[in-house]
Amino acid sequence: MDGYAIRSQATVTASPNSPVMFLVTGTIAAGDDPCVARTAGAHVEYDRDGGLQTCVEIMTGAIFPDEYDACVKVEDTVPVFEPTRRRGAHILVTRPVPPNANRRSAGSDILKGDVVVEKGDTIQLSHMLPLASLGLGAIPLERKPRVGIWSTGNEMVNGNGSTRDANGPYLTAAVRYMGLPAHFLGVLDDEPASLRRHVEMAAASGQYDVLLTSGGVSKGRFDHVRAAVDEMGGEAVFHGLSIRPGHPVLFAMLPGKGGKTAFFGLPGNPGAAAACFRFLTVPYLREFQGQARELPVLAKLLRRPGTSGEKHSCSANQDTDCFRHGILSTSAAGQLMVEASAEQSPSKLSPFKAANCWIHFRPESSATIPGPGGSGLVECYPASPTGGVLLSPNLCN
Amino acid sequence: MDGYAIRSQATVTASPNSPVMFLVTGTIAAGDDPCVARTAGAHVEYDRDGGLQTCVEIMTGAIFPDEYDACVKVEDTVPVFEPTRRRGAHILVTRPVPPNANRRSAGSDILKGDVVVEKGDTIQLSHMLPLASLGLGAIPLERKPRVGIWSTGNEMVNGNGSTRDANGPYLTAAVRYMGLPAHFLGVLDDEPASLRRHVEMAAASGQYDVLLTSGGVSKGRFDHVRAAVDEMGGEAVFHGLSIRPGHPVLFAMLPGKGGKTAFFGLPGNPGAAAACFRFLTVPYLREFQGQARELPVLAKLLRRPGTSGEKHSCSANQDTDCFRHGILSTSAAGQLMVEASAEQSPSKLSPFKAANCWIHFRPESSATIPGPGGSGLVECYPASPTGGVLLSPNLCN
Asked: Which reaction does it catalyse (chains A, B) (predicted)?
């Protein structure tokens, strides 16, 4: 604090009627050597003979001189302007000042051995203050997975019709949202040889840890992704899951330079590609970086998807994990609430204008049944995968 | 859907006992011109004389040919392998197919005149799907404010003591977290002339819309920021607010190239600098970009800061707005809860390891009083200012 460094013992008897006078012998500002008080402003000669207690003016952030043990705030002192006391500035203290008052010990914030960031933590903005205050200009981070992304589909290549590639821009942005390098590698046509050549070359290059395609993983006559993976010696870990949307999804390990490359064959329907990315690819990318498993928040379900019995409803007796987009909000009482988007067709992108979360309906879970008999709570995840924005190893850049 | 494009009218009488046979005249895949069905696979000659209904094999994503009005899914058909029907492939349909079945109209997702992004919205990941599906490769954005940041204080310049600059790395990261360009311009010593020269040059350069310093805004002998602002002809909008922490904060407009430059003189104590940035600078930067005012979430207060009557407690009778960091979480019932960090001294950075929100205690607000007589709810803001990660005008990069 801005004030005067004193010996607290000298103020024990101080009172308005019997103040204690101090001789100000100099000033120590933040950044000054505490052994060399600035005296230029004070023009002091030490008044050793007068028997006065000495003090030093001290500024917030200055290092405390050894010979004093407390700081009296400037507003708790009375300056003395007596013309006879010509040898320097003097102050009066009118109340006892406790030992260590307004003085902070080095190391009182973060102690040796304290953990600031756990292994696996993602550096968040709030971490910057304690890390930088410790002088840690750089900290070791996990290597970031590098992601390559293609879209597939003749309809987006040859100009017949007006289908636009939404998956490519979306998936590229989503990976970057996680703070990871993403390269969009183009839209491939539905030719098996071309597909295989592109994916095989990228895996062999050693430039990518994860490769993504969207489209071409169903069982139709023009769905060539699985065949391309098989032909290049890839190992399918799963092809088809009991999830909606996204059931045709493929996950494989491809042979490549210096090890295997993970490959996600996402469905082509944009809503399905987004759901598979969020619930399959994001956990993989987190695990790759040593991050902890993401936990959902629980929210009260205001509206089931497709309550009127449409095909995108999630019945409680389903044997399928359902992923539904929706809007998460809080009530005036601080209760988390979620409303599934009314339109859940994976080809409809309009609801994504407003959706801010994904709801995970687990199979046959009574927890997802609203009203009596069920808790009415569902598991929600933010629509944008969190974390990683500050994943620069150099904190000062 | 993968299936066959047919005339639905022809299936009205279809049943397992009386199926309707169709001649497959070709294939239309996604991306194909619908007027030129691929016939290579089918080797078809039209069997006009046989009087059979024709159909075309069609793939998901393909454009529907005009002469048909519904798609029968491949799994709802029976292929015919009769050797006598040598002229092409045939299928049987055993159930009526409604008009428009499994067929989607162009424009059924987002209509002309629909608003995808409102003026003032921040582009979020979820916006990418509808925007990209419309073929919008670029959209007009507000200009991003450019921010220059200094720390001040001799103690971080001349090597006396071990005080590290935490504010510089923190504020730089915080601005970047908002998706804005931030330049850390260094640590300035407490010399009025040097301070003035640096700030004046930066304002005159026209390279910054907002300039930030931390430190040197109190009323002490070494607090030169206000004087520097006055001397360069800056106009103080406010200097000192009834807030804790951060009451010495200064906001001014500086003369500069092509208009005025906003200047925030933040306090030096890191907790106070962070609070002032979050509650004063962030709203300014949002307003600059035309973004809507940020709304707090309401959470149940589990612990008041400093319940034992310490100086960092926030009494309900205060006349001051208090900003306290804390931990926001959700209960198993989906209730938002917040616990103020036990240590609230603005010089203590250890609590920032765990803090994920700021709590705003308004003066004399009964809403902030827990238990009977008060709602027990407080206003919370995420510790990291949200938004802006994807503020790249080119969606495809």
From this structure: adenylyl-molybdopterin + molybdate = Mo-molybdopterin + AMP + H(+); molybdopterin + ATP + H(+) = adenylyl-molybdopterin + diphosphate
In a domain, A131, yes or no: no
ipTM for the assembly: 0.83
Q: What is the pLDDT of residue B258?
A: 76
Cα gap B263→A227, rounded to integer Å: 61
Pair B205, B330 in one domain: no
Q: Which residues in chain A (143-202) have CB-CB distances under 8 A to chain B?
A: 153-158, 160-166, 168-170, 172-174, 176-177, 184, 189-190
Same domain? B281 vs B337: no
Segment A373-379 long-range contacts (CB within 8 Å, at least 24 positions apart): A374/A316, A375/B333, A376/A300, A376/A301, A377/A298, A377/A299, A377/A300, A377/A301, A377/B333, A377/B334, A378/A298, A378/A299, A378/A301, A378/A338, A379/A296, A379/A297, A379/A298
pLDDT in tens, A31-70: 888 887 776 444 444 555 567 889 999 998 899 999 999 9
A218/B29 Cβ within 8 A: no
Q: What are phi and psi of A149, to 5 degrees?
A: -135, 130
Measured between beta carbons, the chain A residues lying within 8 angstroms of B271 are: 129
Mean pLDDT of chain A: 85
- Per the structure block, which two tokens stand in for A34? 């505490």
Query: At which of A260, A288, A316 does a domain end?
Result: A288
Residue of A nearest to B267 (CA): A60
**pLDDT at residue A269 is higher than 90:** yes
Q: Are residues A284 and A320 in the same domain?
A: no
Q: Which range marks the domain in which residue A207 is found?
A: 147-288
Q: What is the CA radius of gyration of chain B?
A: 34
Of B245, B324, B273, nearest to B167 by C-alpha is B273
C-alpha distances in Å from residue A370, one per residue of A181, A211, A334, A376, B166: 41, 39, 19, 4, 48
A130 inside 8 A of chain B by CB: yes
Residue keyed to tokens 């159930």: B95
User: What is residue A269's DSSP assignment?
Assistant: S
Is the Cβ of A107 closer than 8 Å to some Cβ of chain B?
no
Tally of structural domains, chain A? 3
Last residue within a domain, chosen from A227, A261, A288: A288
Judge whether B40 lies within some domain. Answer: yes
Residues B87 and B154 in one domain: no
% pLDDT > 90, chain B: 53
Is A203 inside any structural domain? yes
Confidence check: pLDDT of B391 > 90: no
> Among all residues of chain B, which has the CA nearest to that of A131?
B166
In this prediction, residue B388 carries a pLDDT of: 42
A231 and A153 belong to one structural domain: yes
pLDDT higher for A197 or A81? A197
Instruction: Calculate the alpha carbon distances from B190 to A292, A375, B205, B233, B240 in Å.
Output: 44, 60, 23, 20, 20
**Confidence at B395, pLDDT banded by 50, 70, 90:** very low
The enclosing domain of B242 has a CATH number of 3.40.980.10
Min mean pLDDT across A157-161, A374-378, B201-205 is at: A157-161
State the nearest Cα–Cα gap between B49 and chain A, in angstroms: 30
* pLDDT above 90 for A284: yes
Question: Which whole-number Å values give the CA distances from A395 to A132, A391, B382, in the listed order?
Answer: 7, 9, 21
Inter-chain residue contact A127 with B353, CB threshold 8 Å:
yes
Do both A302 and A229 map to the same domain?
Answer: no
Contact A339, A262 (CB under 8 A): no
Q: Which residue of A has its CA nearest to B338?
A: A334
Q: Which pLDDT band holds residue A266 (cuts at 50, 70, 90)?
A: very high
In this predicted model, what pLDDT tens digit does every residue of B237-248 receive, in sequence order?
999 999 999 999
Q: What is the pLDDT of residues A308-327, one digit of tens each?
A: 444 455 655 568 999 999 99
